[in-house]
Amino acid sequence: MSDPVTTWLPVPIRTGRVVVRPPDRGDEDAIVELFTDPEVRRFLGGPVEPEVAHARAAEIVSGATRGQFVIVELATGVVVGSGDISRKRGPWEISYQLRPASWGRGLASEAISALVDWFFANTDEDLLIAVTQDANARSARLLERNGATLATRFEQYGALQRQYEFRRAGQVGPEGHRVRV
After folding, report:
1. Does pTM top 0.90 for this prediction?
2. Residue 180 pLDDT class (50, 70, 90 cuts)
3. Contact of 31 with 25, CB cutoff 8 Å
């Protein structure tokens, strides 16, 4: 097995309702929309200025930044979300954002579950983390539904954060919980 960034999603992941794949040309507008939407960015540091969002989207679709993904709804072919798996604070970390019109439909849950499964099937890593603001109850519930356990809370960017852990099946997490069984 290898580093997830060097073997990044050679084949898109298909679930019942979404495809998770690396970003491609043509995804720029959807990515810009996600970065500039105040609702999407409420717990992610706020919306990004349009010119910055366009530059980020161009970099993301160029493939220069490995570990990036988009979430495409199968029924419509529309990019409904994006994110990445990268090392931001030590361990590998999954981050994601989804269009408000897709909230509450289980699409993010399907995508995150599939990505976590892919990560552990394609790496030797035993730990994948996710961080969300304490105030973002929807994201916390999504992570918990998908087998993540709350590991710690800390303050960053002027807000209380929750760090969740996904562990390889059979590994013991915080407080002795076994996860991803």
Report:
1. no
2. very low
3. no
